[in-house]
Amino acid sequence: MAEKRARFRSIVVLAAVVVAVTADYLENPKFSHPITNVTVAVGREAILACLVEDLGGYKVAWLRVDTQTILTIHSHVITKNHRIGVTHSEHKTWYLHIKEVRESDRGWYMCQINTDPMKSQVGYLDVVVPPDILDYPTSTDMVVREGSNVNLRCVAKGSPEPSITWRRETGEPLKLLTGEEVGSIDGPVLNITRVSRQQMGPYLCIASNGIPPSVSKRIMLIVHFPPMIWIQNQLVGAYEGQQITLECHSEAFPKSINYWTTDKGEIVPQSGKYEPTYSTNGYKIHMKLTIRSISPQDYGNYKCVSKNSLGDTDGTIQVFAIPKPSKLSNGLSRKGLDDQPDSLFQEEEVGSGGRAKTELIFVAFLVALPLVLQ
Question: How many CB atoms lie within 10 A of CB 178?
Fold first, then answer.
């Protein structure tokens, strides 16, 4: 009797095991949600999630679709790629981890259940890359002659493909071929037709694709041209003892050598009487020559000279004598009375009354002059 009871118990236990195992495989596992596509920046960690219901005794595996590489099976990593990992939440959500994502990781990934037939679904991993400007195909600093055509090129890589914008670092506008001036120009090539000295300076090539950070490269455009000189006053009158300043405006690049010369071709020295000064603003130079206490020997022509490797030029300023002004007793000024009496106000050797009369006529003339000129 005892033996029969023991045999019965064994049969019950075996039946329970069979029922349990059969129940596991009678489960009908399915995906409860599609795999969500993932976008991640290069260098970060990507996590793809596969949601499964009623998994039972079945197993979940992750595969790389394009290479048919098995990455994980259940809780085990199969691939030798140390950046791959797998985790799960109560056997319902299975996560594929890819650390330090590379561009080569971009593609389709499959989550698979080992049913018969096999069930699977796929999700896409997109790897985005911030822009990077390529040094070799991108223009470097350029030196050109004024009037030539210039093409500045900027090439960048990234994912998505970056867009290129050109600006002047100084904030000055860019000139289109139509002559219109704009703050920026889009495109990989910046064309400048008949470049001028006003277009010299630093340009910025800015690459952006929506993935921070945007990057830029500074390209210096240097325009060479021979010296040119402008003189506002080419005739300067001065009386003896007066201090005057002669001025020239020069433009040149490369930087010019600048100096003043006299009629005899001698360079005007820096001395107590002569003080040449030069102030520079970019390619523009303001040349000044101060002459203190003019004497008869100082009258004549002075040249401002500008030279660089592309040429030289000069401008002439004539300094001529004028009568020295003098003061009348009432404080009015008239010229040349000490040396050469003006015919209009000829003075005679008269007494104080005659001199007062003459001055009264002079004042009356000054009062009436505006009425006559109307």
Answer: 6
CA distances from 323 to 133, 334, 339 (A): 69, 10, 8
Residue with tokens 């596992």: 29
Closest to 115 in 3D by CA, of 49, 60, 34, 53: 60
- The identity of residue 114, as a single letter, is N
Task: Please give the Cα distance from 156 to 151 (Å, whole number).
Answer: 17
Count of other CB atoms within 10 angstroms of residue 69: 13
Residue 100 gets the label, from left (phi > 0), alpha (psi -120 to 50) or beta, of left
Instruction: Tell me the whole-structure pTM to 2 decimals.
Output: 0.70
SS3 294: coil
DSSP of 127-191, one letter per residue?
EEEEEEE-TTTS---EEEETT--EEEE--EEEESPPEEEEEETT-PPEEPTTS-EES-EESSEEE
Structure tokens at 179: 């002559």
Distance CA 71, CA 172 (A): 56
Asked whether the beta carbons of 216 and 202 are under 8 A apart, the reply is no
d(CA 231, CA 233): 6
Cα separations in angstroms, 77 against 45, 101, 113, 114 = 17, 17, 16, 16
Sequential pLDDT tens for the chain (374 residues): 455 444 434 433 333 333 334 344 456 899 999 999 999 999 999 999 999 999 999 999 999 999 999 999 999 999 999 999 999 999 899 999 999 999 999 999 999 999 999 999 999 999 999 999 999 999 999 999 999 999 999 999 999 999 999 999 999 999 888 889 999 999 999 999 999 999 999 999 999 999 999 999 999 999 999 999 999 999 999 999 999 999 999 999 999 999 999 988 899 988 889 999 999 999 999 999 999 999 999 999 999 999 999 999 999 999 999 998 876 545 555 444 444 333 333 333 333 344 333 343 343 344 344 443 44
Closest by alpha carbon to 217, among 202, 196, 229?
202
CB 317 within 8 A of CB 300: no
Is the CB of residue 282 less than 8 Å from the CB of residue 249? no
DSSP secondary structure letter of residue 313 = E
Which is it for strands 38-41 and 30-33: parallel, antiparallel or unpaired?
unpaired
